[in-house]
Fold:
Amino acid sequence: MNNIKIFTEENYSELSRRSAQIIKTQLDAKPASVLGLATGSTPIGTYEELVRLYKAGELDFSQVTTFNLDEYFPIAKASDQSYVFFMRKHLFDFINIPDEKINIPNGEATNHAAECDEYEKKIAASGIDLQLLGIGNNGHIAFNEPADYFPSVTHYVKLDDTTIKANSRFFQNENEVPRHALTMGIKTIMQAKKILLLASGAGKAEILCEAIFGTITPKNPASVLQLHHDVTIITDKEAGNLLIPRQ
Ligand code: PGA
Structure:
């Protein structure tokens, strides 16, 4: 467990502040860092805090490169459900990151296999210094859904019914949620130098506890993080409720 540091914060704001501070420490040490970024509800507070720090003159993103974990497929970049839109709305429109340093899988690609290949190669060329992750209710990280094996590199994936249901809160109804996505694979994620996983709310407590202390299995994709050498997990009180080491 020496590879996993756990911070259980009092509430979501504290979680977000701690997370942004860790990202700031990374950027202070290496201004040209490559950050892996995530979407979903959980990192929104972190992005707000990063924007606040940027506006306060405490952060500079001019040399930063980013790779997002995933994107629905197909989806128009301009759609307000796309992860391109999400990242602009919550972070990119408010900081000084150059457009050409932002990478998100292309939901408009004509050939999804070629797009995945290219995305993986681009990540391999620069490496990721710090990868931000959420965890799905089913243990997914990025869109690596529970399966019989750990998917390796960036790939096209069919979304789990539970993910479609969970993400339908962002759409008019469940039918509008795209059924597929492009996502970094487990190997892609595991190659990041550092991992920062955030979990908020009671709904994540059990799956997170299983991921950290249970069997390493592709049925709970986040469990693979037990094999990574540098993982930091930040939870609020509710999500961290069950994180008592087992004998
Ligand atoms: P959430 O999603 O942050 O919206 O809970 C996490 C995830 O699905 O990875």
About this structure: Residues 6 and 233 are 5 Å apart (CA to CA). The chain has seven helices and ten strands. The chain has a mean pLDDT of 96.
